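dumping this here before i forget
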Amino acid sequence: MQQFYKNLSIWLLIALAISLLVHYCQKAPERAHTVTYTEFLHKVDSGLLTNVTVIGNTVLWNSSDGTLTKTVVPQSSDALARLLRGNVTVLAEEPSQPSWLLYALLSWLPFLFFGLLWLFYFRRSGGQSSGGSGRILAFGKSRARLINPEESKIKLDDVAGIDEAKEEVAELVDFLKKPEKFTAAGARIPAGVLLYGEPGTGKTLLAKAIAGEAGVPFFSISGSNFVEMYVGIGASRVRDLFNEGKKRAPCIIFIDEIDAVGRHRSAGGAGSSGNDEREQTLNQLLVEMDGFDANDHVIVIAATNRQDILDPALLRPGRFDRQVMVPLPDVGGREKILKVHARNAKIDPQVNWQVIARGTPGFSGAQLASLVNEAALMTARSNQPAVTTAILEAAKDKVLMGAERRSLIITDREKRITACHEAGHALVAWMLPGADPVHKVTIIPRGRALGLTMQLPEEERVSHDRAYLLATLSTLLGGRVAEEIVFNQTTTGAGNDLERVSDLSRRMVCEWGMSETVGPLTFRVANPLAGQPGQIMSEQTAILIDGEVKKLVQTAYDTARHLLVEHRSSLDAVTAALLERETLSRDELEVIIRTNAPG
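structure:
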C-alpha cells in the first residue's frame, strides 16, 4: 500500500509538470513585448510592418530584432483597413480557449498532490504507532507492543531471587491456562496485579515470565505512552488497548511505570487545568478495570517504584486487588540471580558464587546482571580463558563505583591524606565489635571517590540495633578523625561521610526513637507527592532534636578518636601499606594490625 501511494505521488508530480508546460506554451502571447496603439499606427503608416497575426483584438508581429511584439487594438478602430491599404499580410486566428480539464488540473492538482502526500505520511505513522495496522490518524490508537506466545521465551525459571513474589503471581498462570477451573468454583481472579519495589528488582521481567509461562498474548506499554498534549487522546488509547485485549482474551496487559498516569488526582481549583489530560486518562483506566463491562479474561499487571504517589482509587479491590512487593534480593537470592546470568558465560570452576553474593549487599537484579556482563567483558579484553573470582571482584568495584581513574594526577600529599583517611575508616571498623567486618581497602580512584573501605556483612540484617548504628557512625567519622590526628587539619574528602552521618543520626532521633531525651516519637517530614503533610512541632522540640542529633554524632566522633589515638602505630602502618600496594585485602590488613598492636 505504501508503494502504491509512492507511485501515485510520482505520476501526479509528472502530470503537474506537463500541465504547467502546456499552460506555459498557451500563454505565449501574454509574454510578448507590448507597444502602444499610437506607436503601432506609426509603424503601419511608415511601412515598417509586412506580416502580422490578428488574434481577437490583439495584433502580433516580429520586430526588426526578432522580438515578438503585440498591440491591443480598440474594437472601433480602422486598424485593419489601414493594414490592408499598406499592403501588410494579415493572418487571422481564433482566440484559444483553455479546456475545462486543463483548468481543473491547474486548479486542483497541487491540492490533490499535497493531500495525498499528507495521507501517505499519516498512514505510515499510524502503522508504526499501532503495531502495523496502517490505520489513518492513529492518534487515539494504542501504542502497546504485542508479544505473541510463540515470541515469548522468558519463563518463571528465568526469574530468580524473588521467590515470594513468584508464588504470589503463580496462580495467574493457572487461571490463564485453565480459566474454567476457577470460574466453576465461583472464584474471581484478580483484575489487576501491582508490582512495586526498587528499580531493577525484576518487575518487568516477572510480568514477561507470567505471560511466557501461561502462553497468552502480552501487551506491553509504558504509562507515558498514554499522555499527550491534547486532552482526550490518552483516554482514547486506554479504550483501544482494552478493546484489543478483549479480542485476544485471555491475555495480559502490562503497564510499566504506571505512576506516570496514575498519580494522585488534584482537588481542582486554579492551576489544575494542566492535569486534565492525565486525569481523564486515569479515569478511563479506572472505568476499564472495574466498570460496567467485565474484563474477566484480561489481566492488568502494572509496575512502579513510586507506589506512594498512586491514586487510592487505583489501588482499591476490584482494580489492583493484589499488590506484590518485589524486594531487593537477599544473599541467597543474589546467588541464584548470579548463577542465572552466568549461564551463557564461561566461568572458572573455582568461582564461589556464595562469596560473590555476600559481597554485593543491596545489589538489585539489574546490577547483578551488569556485574556478570562486565566480568565477561573484562575477561575478553584481557584474553583470559574464563571469568575468575578476581575479575568478578574488579567488575563489582566498577559497577559499584565506576571505572578506575589511573590517569588522574594526584600529588603525593593528597595521596597520603587519602591513604590516611581510608586507614582511619578501616581501623575503626576493625576495632568496633558491632561494625561490619572490613573486606577490602583501596586508594585507587574510581568515579568521584579517591578511595574506598569496603565492609562485608557477615549476615543479612532486616533491622539494626542502636549499637550497630553507633558503630556505623564512628566508622564513617574515622576518616576525618584520622586526618585530624595525623595532619592536624581536615579536608573536603570527608564531605560524603558527613552527609551520611547527618542523615543517619537524624533518622535515629526522628524516625526510630533512639534518643532517650526525645523518647519514642517520630517527626515526619512533609511529602506533598504522597499527600502527607509535615508533622507539626514546636520550636523547642526542633531545638531538642538538633541537640540530640549533635550528641549522637559527638559520641561517635569521640569513640573513633579514642580508638585511633590508642592504635596510632597501626594507623601509620596501614597508611604506609596503602601507599605502597594501593589495595589491601582483609588478610593483609589483619597481619598489619596484629604486628603493630599496642603493648
